[in-house]
């Protein structure tokens, strides 16, 4: 049973005519799709956003049940200036629509010996925390932040916002990448500045937030602690979905159209040029430009007509390594846990072993790591009084690693609850659950159309980044573009907002808006079709 609260959006009543159109269709309304749609609509295109699910948001979905509100995917905002840029481009002010609050500490991080590190409380307090573990690492922290400041300035400002469709652009960036020692891993770089093994985890785990393995993600990704120091870690009051809703409203206010419950089954191509899309109910929406926010693998291997899947494309796509997946529990509990902060991370006893098991080995990991989100610590409206809305994320291998989730989900869930009770000290957790839902790697695959059920798309490694990542413009079909986690620069909210900037910039250069134009043409009437994709598994406690 699909038991979570749904506000079904109407289709903005698109009355469709038959005239030719220079309109843009964005397939998929994740944060990247929404941001691209806003940017393109704000710069003069007629944009129609077509989403498979009942609501927009993609991974940033929301679940409401029994008075509890859960963000289902992203929870932390690390580069709010990118959202501000989007609002500014649309002639509006983010603060009028979204209430962002900085968190301190940004995270509490527990280690298997029971100690914890409160991270992200400002320069002085961070140094005090480091000194508790290893006084000599205080200087290491200063040096680490100095070097990652340089990485941030080069990588975030110069590389991430640039299209990397041409080999020449990549070759031009090589001296820069060499200077940044992009060939080293994050863990390798961090280990040069910190002696203490716990501190090495604290300052190297961030690639996991975008599906990267700290042992092989390029040292470029070690800039995240610097980014967090500069811009803070924020929570959007009401949860991440308040950002999604505000983006949807912004897009509609600009005149954009949203169609939900309409999985796109085919990208229409005519003589090598994109012509529009066909949805599952047979509706054909014609458009001169299509921006795909759907999974990059599925878009090319399943939505494009086979004759446009040029030789070498499948081999290139098959060669990608994919990020790990996640097993998520959303627990409404009738008590509160003082040892949890808004964001709490629980490190595994053997970090490197877990990373190997997550990325390279088959089967379930033998030890677990957790990320716990307790937003009611900051926003009491997220749970009934005296209760906690608790989101438990456990990273697990993707579906290519031979785990039968239909069989394993229930015992794995029991193992998680037991571990949280026994090792993390969440006493009486099982008994205090009022409502419970879960999202497994199968749901990433079936509900979100994610290749191998990966949570963050293509794994961010040096040779799967920039030129080597899916280009923001198709090499096969003119007028087809990509936006979102699988394309440059990559996953995470900052990554997909930047990808929207890169992609919309390319569209504007290559297919500028042609003045007032008709909305995309459709051959059947307005759609509100029911997706037949399987729904997330849910479990009730009453
Ligand atoms: C559990 C989890 C926690 C995370 N936490 C954070 C965090 O705290 N901070 C952070 O910065 N990042 C976080 N991330 C990463 C971040 O959420 C994602 O990288 C980002 O939201 C992905 O956005 P996207 O634009 O690629 O689209 P997605 O969210 O992948 O959305 C794609 C959309 O396309 C739709 N679609 C797919 N196929 C079709 C089709 N054929 N027709 C029509 N529509 C289609 C889907 O239904 C979906 O709505 C997290 C990710 C996960 C999974």
Task: Characterise the protein shown here.
With about 550 residues, the protein is α+β, with helices and mostly antiparallel strands. It folds into three domains: about 25-60 and about 75-100 and about 240-320 and about 460-520, FAD/NAD(P)-binding domain, CATH 3.50.50.60; about 125-235, no CATH class; about 320-450, no CATH class. The chain is built from 17 helices and 21 strands. Helix 1 packs parallel to helix 10 (about 240-255), helix 1 runs parallel beside helix 17 and helix 5 packs across helix 9 (about 225-230). It starts with about 25 loop residues before the first strand and ends with a strand. Flavin-adenine dinucleotide binds near residues 29, 33, 328 and 485.
Sequence of strands across the biggest β-sheet: 7-6-15-16-17-14-18-21
Proportion of strand residues: 15-25%
For this structure, what is the CATH class of the largest domain? Alpha Beta
Number of strands: 21
Give the N-terminus to C-terminus distance in angstroms. 15 Å
Query: Poorly predicted ranges (pLDDT <50, ≥5 residues)?
Result: 1-20, 517-542
Radius of gyration, Cα only, in angstroms?
23 Å
- What is the CATH topology of the largest domain? FAD/NAD(P)-binding domain
